[in-house]
Amino acid sequence: MSLLCPDGFLSPLEIEAAVTAALAEDLGRAGDITSIATIPEDLQGRAELVARDGGVMSGLPLVEAAFHRLSPEIAIAAHARDGAAVEGGATLMTISGNARAILGAERVALNFLGHLSGIATTTAAFVARISHTKARIVCTRKTTPGLRALEKYAVRCGGGSNHRFGLDDAILIKDNHIAVAGGIEAVLKRAKNAAGHLVKIEIEVDSLDQLREVLDVGLADVVLIDNFDLESMRKAVAMVAGRLVIEASGGITLESAAAIAETGVDYLSSGALTHSVKNLDVGLDIAM
After folding, report:
1. What contacts 24+ positions apart, CB below 8 Å, involve 28-32?
2. Which residue in 150, 149, 152, 155 sits closest to 125, CA to CA?
3. For residues 26 and 105, what is the distance between their CA atoms, to the nearest angstrom?
């Protein structure tokens, strides 16, 4: 079966690049000198990949790629796929083949799976908290350098949505842009003149007065209300009255998410989905 999350695309090129870099970092110049010294070259082994804690899976294709990168002959029987919720103790994969290769790829495989499954599990918890509203949870660019595509994929595995992937795929005007460009009207007009017809324009505001100015100018597609209290959020939703998509941001936590979503905003963006998650505990048990 495909190990990928059915609702999230992850480029094979991203998988290959990430796994190759991680293995090179771990194996260094001389390889796994412990396994080379202690394990016969042709010894075969079998191992089980186990979820120590319950959670939502993400990263299984990288696990598969890590083992196959060291030994293409390794046989992998998958018992779960990305996006699946599993219970603690569940066997995720059975891996059979060259014992040195299994041990050489073990840590890289577990690092990817634990980190990405932690993101997916946290995202799923946010999604559940706001499921009674129309709002959706989205990630941000607060990602681990070099792992953005993987971490954003993990968010999708958890049922969340992605914000922009980089500075090049949407216009998001922040407070510093407004200050440098000379105000809201000036910055919106410049953005509109420069944007292609498929590029959305989002602008951040930190007060209801700024929101009123954005509405009066009328050139934005999305407004980001940053660090508003709940009452101000409700007023913002009433002011916008469906004319713009509304994104709420600023210190959003699992505990505050439901109340924010209930104000009527369309999206909640949280950097905590990627920068502050707990690693999901997964392990590799040898079963010779």
Report:
1. 31/104, 32/100, 32/103, 32/104
2. 155
3. 9
CA distance 166 to 223: 18
Helix segments in the chain, DSSP class H: 12-27, 33-38, 60-70, 99-129, 148-157, 175-181, 184-194, 208-217, 230-240, 257-261, 272-275
Average pLDDT for the chain: 96
Active site residues per annotation: 107, 142, 174, 204, 226
* Residues 28-44, mean pLDDT to the nearest whole number: 96
Q: pLDDT by residue (tens digit) across 57-94? A: 999 999 999 999 999 999 999 999 999 999 999 999 99
The reported pTM is 0.95
Q: Which two tokens stand for residue 50?
A: 């186990």
**Any bridge partners for residue 226, and if so which?**
249
Q: Does position 288 have pLDDT exceeding 80, yes or no?
A: no
Q: Which domains does the chain have, with CATH numbers?
A: 12-119+277-286 (3.90.1170.20), 128-275 (3.20.20.70)
Residue 173's Cβ-count burial label (10 Å; 0-12, 13-18, 19+) is buried
